[in-house]
Amino acid sequence: xxxxxxxxxxxxxxxxxxxxAPVFLDSDLDTVTGVDEETFEAIAAAYPSVDxxxxxxxxxxxxxxxxMVFYPHSMEKKWSQFIRIPREEIPAVHARWMHLxxxxxxxxxxxxxxxxxxxR
Length: 120
What we know:
The structure is a single chain. The chain is built from seven helices and no strands. The protein is an all-alpha fold. The protein has one domain (3-119). Helix 1 packs antiparallel against helix 3 and helix 1 (8-25) crosses helix 4 (55-70). The longest helix has 18 residues, at 8-25.
């Protein structure tokens, strides 16, 4: 499993994003992550005792990391209540996880450029 090979800090950030996504993404959770709400919440509750080689788990992690950067609107004040690092640092965690998964990580000059390439 890719996330098991990540640093403890990166693993914690993934957990933060999984737990925060239902709050920040609200009713759009299943649309923007590709995982239905019940499954997503079960994965978040079980994390880190999940297998990210499972498609739903991988989609939940990928969707949470991808969408927590740009999607939460007007939630800046709540960010630090849920996620331990600044929003700008999430793309680097995401890229490290994707690399360990063996997924292509697009070349990008900035976190924003990386996310726009990933969203295509």
